[in-house]
Batch of 3 targets.
Target 1
Amino acid sequence: YSHHIDDALEAKVGPHGLPQAVFDRELARATPALDKIRQWRNDGTLPLLKLPAARDDIAAIRPHAEHFRKFEHLVVFGIGGSNLGGQTLVALKDHGFGPAKGHPKIWFMDNVDPATFAEMCERLPLERTGVFAISKSGTTAETLTQLYSLLPLLEAKVGKANLAKHLLVITEPKDNVLRRTAMRLGCPVLDHDPNIGGRYSVLSLVGLLPALIAGVDVAAVREGAASVLDPVLAAKEATGLAPAVGAALSVGLAKERGVHTTVLMPYCDRLGYFGFWFRQLWAESLGKDGKGTTPVRAMGTVDQHSQLQLYLGGPADKLFTVLILDTKGQGRPIPAAELGGDKSLAYLEGQGLGDLILAEADATAATLVKNGRPTRVIRLKTLDEKVMGALMMHYMLETMFAAELWGVDAFDQPAVEEGKILTRQYLSQRRRS
Ligand code: PA5
């Protein structure tokens, strides 16, 4: 993939134009951040940075993938970082019309809406359904409540003796309620690395196991991640590491100029969940001590007909990243003869859907730049596992660099924890008699 900070950020003038000299000066500040990230990798503080090169752990999860692949459906209970990475990778194979042939349909059940849950229980053939419960802490109320709500129904269908064959748990290797539940049920429990935070866990078994079951080439995902990480770790100084460092700097500099919203707009359905994954990563890692920018997930072309008016005509407080996949020549070209001789449709002659979505993406990026909106364009020649891994690593690095430059801890989430504690308190106080 190639990354380009477009004219609006490089401009010498304009509402958010950043003079190159300012950008270069800031870039020098990134070298200490790079050193820190490198140190975290080398001393093992950040095992996530060792994952792109790891292989043995994939071999270890393969037998579980083989077992669960035999089910018709797989329900994954887990929320936030225990959900979005896997869901994003699985979307490479299933983005609306069902799984690849021979693979189960995977249902990521993050929300706890009782109506959705009831529908799931009613519609899924539980006797042909596997169930994962993923929670790093093993204490998250949503995940536990869903699991405990389903267990009796599942047992009624498959029998006590077979229950464990339908279940798998991923949680930290320490005592917690989810682990105790798994031990009691006798189902497999896989360890969630305690030093990898939920939203950074996509390259670990948390993201890779569901992906493997869906038929994703997970080794290629890691290979793609390594292709972005390795040059960053090998670089002597931050200067010249344009993608991850430059991107973090540009967001910070734009923020100083009143740009508080970061919009990610992929023109590709398979990147729809990537937008949600990015949104969590960015918000939960950087939104601290009054800092951070608000991430917005938009979709091209849909949001051209919904949000673009605001993006262009509303407050100039947003930075845009347009993710453009080269779809030129894709889709059936519409022959002139099928256009009924209508001259106003001449622009469609010989063009297909791929040409249309590409033209729309280019047009959006160009319009944003023309209107002085700070815009980055990431161009993807193709979208496969390697590219997805590269993109994810790029954004994890960009987030870490931004955190270092802004002076926040990218890896904690005190506000989220506060919400979890309060939820449990409220539930205890409001116990049904
Ligand atoms: O990234 C994070 O830390 C959070 O989004 C968690 O993943 C989320 O709150 C779920 O936590 P747990 O995996 O402990 O159930």
Target 2
Amino acid sequence: MTAAVRTTCPYCGVGCGVVASSDGAGGWAISGDKEHPANAGRLCSKGSALGETLGLDGRLLHPVVDGRQASWDEALATVADRFSDVIAEHGAQAVAFYVSGQLLTEDYYVANKLMKGFIGSANIDTNSRLCMASSVAGHRRAFGGDVVPGNYEDLELADLVVLVGSNLAWCHPVLYQRLIRAKSERGTRIVVIDPRRTATCDAADLHLAIRPGSDVLLFNGLLAHLGRAGAMDQDFIATCTNGFAEAFLSAGDDACDMDAVALGCGLTLGEIQEFYNLFTGNSKTVTVYSQGVNQSSRGTDKVNAIVNCHLATGRIGKSGMGPFSVTGQPNAMGGREVGGLANQLAAHMGFTPDDIDRVGRFWQAPRMAQREGLKAVDLFQAIEAGKIKALWVMATNPAVSLPDADRVNRALASCPFVVVSDCVGDTDTTAYADVLLPAAGWGEKDGTVTNSERRISRQRGFLPNPGEAKPDWWIISQVAARMGWSDAFAYQSPADIFAEHAALSAFENDGSRAFDIGALTGVDYDTLPPTQWPARKSSGGTARLFAEGGFPTPDARARFVTVQAATPAMSASAEYPFILNTGRIRDQWHTMTRTGLVPRLSSHIAEPFVALNPADAATLNLTDDDLAVLRSAQGDATLRIRVTRDQPQGQLFAPMHWNRHFSGNGGINALTAPVTDAISGQPELKHTPASLTPF
Ligand code: SF4
């Protein structure tokens, strides 16, 4: 019997530890790792079904070139030659990578190094752009770095947990279980701020069904109220922050009194007072925010409106206190650490001349990118415009998951050369590939991931690579070698790559530089226990940051950001009278290429749907289970109706998961608009004007 292997769940950003052990009958038993700090043995429905996703049905097992099985040699040479040809003829800006929070940190590191240091372009963006980009931008504005100050334990130690735009019960189930247990043991008060009533509201002491997009007004009103109530931490403001006076004055102008806030947020005065009094009266407060905040044309401002309230009260980095962004993907944070976004460099550096120079010298890079690259939505529009002539998609399915998906499909169809590396052979995106590269999947590959509380854990393989599948880091390194850079990409293992990544975090770094926040010198890949960065040799991991200031800004102070309430980019109209919101359901993950393999996960919700309020259903003469056509300016989909009081009037909700394999149409993102936050570039996936008519 094979010894048990300790690894990490490949789904959400909770990052639960998993133990895989042989069941003695040729299969694998999956259980929660009792020693992992994130989950202490717990798993949700998706994680506990992982053992049922390990079959080879649908796997991509061999390289494919122009539709026929090919050798690795031919496939790798084709990719290297075509990318080199495009770069020679059109320049480095004419090629791009679109990567994924499903990649391991080591895969991400190598892809970034190749594109940003050797090809000389920063046109590498990631599906994390759809997930966390607004929180990243908000944190960089406020803290000076892409840092989550606290940890999961804070949700258990808080007296008040405020959940903003987060259906934690379905999207981060094990963290929700921890919160519910704390509530039953110590009476934690829970406030849910979400336009619709979700499963998370079952545990809420107060549900604020705010008008979509009014979050900034609500938190500006809170900041003004904290001032009126004398609830500020004047000492923290004076010694650890800048910009308070401007932000406070502006918030007061924006949210001049509670009546104005209530009106603007679509709430009663009593609801506003109750929330503000709860926040004012509970110093141990954690505010959790997720996609309802991030996936917005004002997402960055929403993040800063929340963070302002925590800075004003000094509730940051102390046990049971802090603003807390929960990540959607298993490795969205690990990818960010190595510069996974088009506007970042590795080790938390940006595109300043100093950072470009430092990373370039560390890599001994022949052609460092000199400026930020194209963010996801802009990247695919550049492909459609003919500016990008070679694209490599790794471990993601943009034909379904990006907004205005039909346009993305047209862009992929028009791109002269498309490479897709994936474990799955037939996705909506692989259909456009000139070259398909079979990647090792969960249970096969080795590396690290970082969860929402900055905790780095190992993913470990316990299965052989099937067919000719290879790890992503190997595939990228082989292409780099064939493009002429074999020495710089001569990695023999993920451990080699992690060691280089850790060395970069310490390069010319005496601890005083801003990027020291991501120090990894105290992490040993081989023996790695789940560890929170920064992890220095001298001090090990770090549970919390910033309780006494020490922000990674030039003067070590946090910055209040002046933000003003604004409506979402698009409004309902006579033609499109509803607002369409999209999101996850409990038992599926992303575009269902893995969870769709497990029949029991479909017993919770078996098919795509659109949910609406009973009054709207009556007006449209629709009843439960009817079919209806949902339409926006971008596209349409025919969906089953769910009538529920959980939806406010005028608002629709549809899950994001189903693709053409499951639904017969292009999925809900055929309807969502390619409108983005001007700072973060994150798309507004939760606010698309739409119409609904009986089928
Ligand atoms: Fe996996 Fe997230 Fe479920 Fe944990 S909560 S088992 S990380 S999907």
Target 3
Amino acid sequence: MEEHQKSLKRENFSSGIAVFFATLGSAVGLGNIWRFPYLTGANGGAAFLIVYLICIAFIGIPVMVCEFYIGRKTRKNAVGAFDKIGASKGWKTIGFAGIVSAFLIMFFYSCVAGWVYSYLFRAINGDFAGINPDASGAMFTKTILGPMPPILWQMIVLVVVSLILIAGVQKGIERITKTLMPVLFILIIICDIRAITLPGAAQGFTFLFKPDFSSLTAAGILTALGLAFFKLSLGMGTMMTYGSYFTEDNNLIATSAKVAISDTIVSLLAGIAIFPAVFSFGMKPGAGPGLLFITIPLVFSKIPLGNLLLVAFFFLTSIAATTAMMSLVEVPVAYLTEEKGMNRKKAVITTTAIMAIIGILATLSVDKGSVLGKVSILGKGFFDLFDYISSNILLPVGGLLIAVFVGYFNKKESIVNELSNEGTLKNTKLINIYLLILRFVTPVLLILVFLNSIGLIKI
Ligand code: PFF
């Protein structure tokens, strides 16, 4: 039994391709298809996009490399990794905060994933045939206000994620991501082709690609930073945990760059699928979280065989959400199995049960007319509060600490050794440039964004 547990614990991904798709599966999720478009819409389009790209290049990729470095070097969960790498006790807080973030994100993420699953079901049912903008808006309201249906869908989501995770790293995570990520990519491209041929689509492009800096606020800059962390699943030990399953010969810097670039491409493709349609149907780009749910059914309802494509689209959005949630849940699961000696099945069930119970609060808080919807902490309902604390505070702070830990508290030889796969990659120059950025650019940018967002300085 003990032996069996050990082998399960240290199961790894089987190949470079598996590493890439699993990691991309974590990064690509509701963030690309639901969040990126509506946040870009709400924060001034292309100006926001530019700040976002800077965050990805100078903060996201460097922090991702750090997480892979810690994970693969120690082959441990987000908490145990800090012990194994010889860090003093305090650094473990990063791992614990990561576990808290995994829960906070899952509380609201599983709710939105539930909406996506229910839309898939409706699409299969043919509910969107010939839909107009008003009916589409009404359908979204009906979907999220429940109270019972959104909770049921959320529970279904959590059961699906649990079943995959119980199957293990290779048979669960690897198999699902490797099969379905490429299909998602193809489907988004099909949506794009349709969206850009709609009348009035050009306005959507202007909105997405022509910067208007006057509409970018300090809060918008912090949001871009938070989105970069959320998008790339950083600052909370997810990539550390996945890194601990990487193959020995994986090129960590190259994988980080490939994943970040592919993920950004998927976000842009989602934006291109959505904004031209928004303008074409005379809707507002800053429509908020409903953008995906209201506009996508409209776009597809205009296409020949649209309903079939709509089924495929929501099926693949469900997959994107599911593969991202697998990585979120894996953070506490890896901790519980390795540090607390729980078997994998029990760890998965314990974790998702807690996520289910508190996740219901987030789901019920969406209805502002309900008792829970009226609860306000720091001026936010549960759903928004869980989101704000994790994305805008815990992930960026976690990312800053991870960057400082690796950049200043790890021996250069150890980093060079790991990032060059013990010298086999001959990439010392690149590692040196990386270390310069990690030490002097990443933390400085992160701190500037924070000071700016709390009003202490003005960028
Ligand atoms: N990256 C995922 C998305 O963009 O939807 C969300 C996410 C997954 C955030 C895993 C954090 C995480 F650890």
